[in-house]
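Bumping my old thread because nobody answered last time. Still need a sequence for this structure:
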């Protein structure tokens, strides 16, 4: 598939699953066989937010993600630190230099050694431009086992601009698609009640519009708040909107 055809495909994707499967295959053409994409809208100076609210897409093995993500190793990963402080593309060659000069901290060393044991040793990270101080997105492109960083850098020298373009378009498209984090899904009734709140309707209005009692509407809103792990209905509307779970058209 040509670059133009692939970008057209990305622009017309209707689900994250379809986009992600195709993107993994496309990046494999350049030698990147394992991808890890992450995005948060809840970043603060001291935190990236609740991990359950992250948008995480990956084709890494469960053996890898259970440790890197599940045990929180990502928080001390040198290239994650790089992505939080920079925008654009970063070669993992900096890791070898940090290892050579012994400038890795002890937590960073643990991540470095774990990645090495899993064959995550050569690649590139792309840190996407943020439009909010609370948001940040990045993707780690891991090269196939056996490829050296010099070989990866040579691929990037030839195709880096195209790879950057494809990943930026994929990132922007992901932000428009519905994404349900684990334990954050809403029922159709909870979603409908939140949509009416978003339209400025009162609980009494919503009860009439949905053909329910006020008590039942309040129950749906309470359960929506619990599902989204927020304290107020306004926060629930905001979080549901962030994850594109409201006013969703059927594909």
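Sorry it took so long. Here it is:
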């Amino acid at each position: 598939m040509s670059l133009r055809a692939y970008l057209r495909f990305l622009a017309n994707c209707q689900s994250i699953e379809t986009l992600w499967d195709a993107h993994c295959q496309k990046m494999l053409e350049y030698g990147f066989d394992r991808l890890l994409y992450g995005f948060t809208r809840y970043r603060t100076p001291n935190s990236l937010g609740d991990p359950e609210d992250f948008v995480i897409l990956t084709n890494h093995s469960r053996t890898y993600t259970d440790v890197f993500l599940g045990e929180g190793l990502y928080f001390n990963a040198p290239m994650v630190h790089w992505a939080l402080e920079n925008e654009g593309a970063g070669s993992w060659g900096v890791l070898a230099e940090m290892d050579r000069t012994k400038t890795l901290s002890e937590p960073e060393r643990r991540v470095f050694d774990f990645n090495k044991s899993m064959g995550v040793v050569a690649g590139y990270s792309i840190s996407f431009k943020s439009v909010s101080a609370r948001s940040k997105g990045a993707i780690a492109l891991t090269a196939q086992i056996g490829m050296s960083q010099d070989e990866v850098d040579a691929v990037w020298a030839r195709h880096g601009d195209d790879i950057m373009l494809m990943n930026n378009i994929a990132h922007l498209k992901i932000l428009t698609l519905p994404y349900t984090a684990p334990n954050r899904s809403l029922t159709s009734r909870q979603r409908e009640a939140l949509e009416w709140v978003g339209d400025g309707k009162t609980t009494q209005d919503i009860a009439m519009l949905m053909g329910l009692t006020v008590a039942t509407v309040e129950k749906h809103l309470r359960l929506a708040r619990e599902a989204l792990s927020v304290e107020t209905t306004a926060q629930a509307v905001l979080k549901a909107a962030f994850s594109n779970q409201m006013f969703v058209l059927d594909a």
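The longest strand covers residues 32-40. Let me know if any region looks off to you.
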